[in-house]
Design brief:
The chain has 264 residues and is α/β, with parallel strands linked by helices. The protein has 10 helices and 9 strands. It binds flavin mononucleotide.
Length: 264
């Protein structure tokens, strides 16, 4: 499927693992980073003539991440193009497909297919145990196989729309919390720069000479990538995470929005 392209956003690697699985099954070009595309002269070059465009992203606060929303809002769309969206989540999604559909409909297209895949959580509530990680990985592969078949056949589906109110409530509650998120860096920081590498918003600067701790600017997506990927667990939010998690099949350099992906 060379006339197809797949965009992804991923903080802790779950959505990238799904995107890589799908591009491999569908024999598509490698997935394209949304944060990486957004700084290019033409962020939508791959989608311009594609007959099929997909998005893979995590559920954030019951819908799609802000950066993904901004990317799709600005995207030139065509009614004859097949659009699909795959979300990864921990407990439940609500509005992500509804919201993508609304954005596309505003421009005369629509979301043809949506499916979600349950993955290990990255909100720091439960420590990931090896058996659950393995089970989720197997389930992800099974679901990705079903999704790729549906997408290859340009299948249409009716994605969930029933819990819109619940989704709006969760989004409203958690967006109040988001505004108050602040991060602390403790003395175990080694200035390794991984936090800056994985930050989708290029919001972190690290002084490699070691003079000062990582500095955050004001473009934080609150995706928690920096906290989870820090090898020294030196970063924390004001609500401490009980556990750290990142997808075991992904390396932090693959999340660098400005690096070309090496699908391994
Ligand atoms: C800020 C934030 C908000 C989240 N909100 C939800 C949510 O509303 N529902 C849910 O099931 N999971 C939620 N999650 C969990 C992620 O959707 C899930 O772990 C996802 O697989 C992470 O994908 P990634 O590794 O590609 O970033 C949230 C995670 C973060 C960091």
């Amino acid at each position: 499927m060379s006339a197809c392209c797949l965009y992804f956003f991923s903080a802790t690697g779950n959505s990238l693992a799904v995107a890589l699985e799908l591009t491999s099954l569908l024999q598509m070009p490698e997935p394209i980073s949304i944060p990486g595309s957004m700084v290019l002269d033409d962020p939508y070059a791959a989608a311009r003539n594609a007959e099929c465009v997909g998005f893979v992203f995590p559920v954030h606060r019951a819908t799609l991440p802000e950066m993904v929303r901004g990317f799709i809002v600005e995207m030139p769309v065509r009614p004859d193009c097949y659009y699909f969206a795959i979300s990864t989540y921990t407990l439940f999604g609500c509005n992500e497909f509804w919201d993508v559909d609304e954005i596309l409909c505003a421009q005369g297209a629509r979301l043809n297919y949506g499916a979600s895949i349950q993955m290990m959580g990255n909100v720091g509530l439960l420590a990931p145990d090896t058996r659950t990680v393995q089970r989720r990985r197997e389930q992800m592969r099974e679901q990705a196989a079903e999704i790729s078949e549906a997408v290859a056949n340009h299948q249409e589906n009716y994605f969930r729309r029933s819990n819109k109110l619940l989704g709006r409530l969760v989004a409203a509650f958690t967006s109040m919390r988001r505004r108050s998120i602040s991060f602390k860096v403790d003395g175990s920081c080694t200035r390794c720069g991984v936090c800056a590498q994985v930050c989708p918003a290029q919001n972190i600067t690290v002084d490699k000479d070691g003079a000062h701790a990582p500095v955050r600017s004001d473009k934080c997506e609150a995706c928690l990538a920096c906290v989870h990927w820090c090898p020294a667990n030196a970063l924390s939010t004001q609500t401490p995470l009980h556990s750290h998690y990142h997808n075991p099949d992904i390396k932090p350099e693959q999340l660098n929005p400005h690096a070309r992906l090496e699908s391994s």
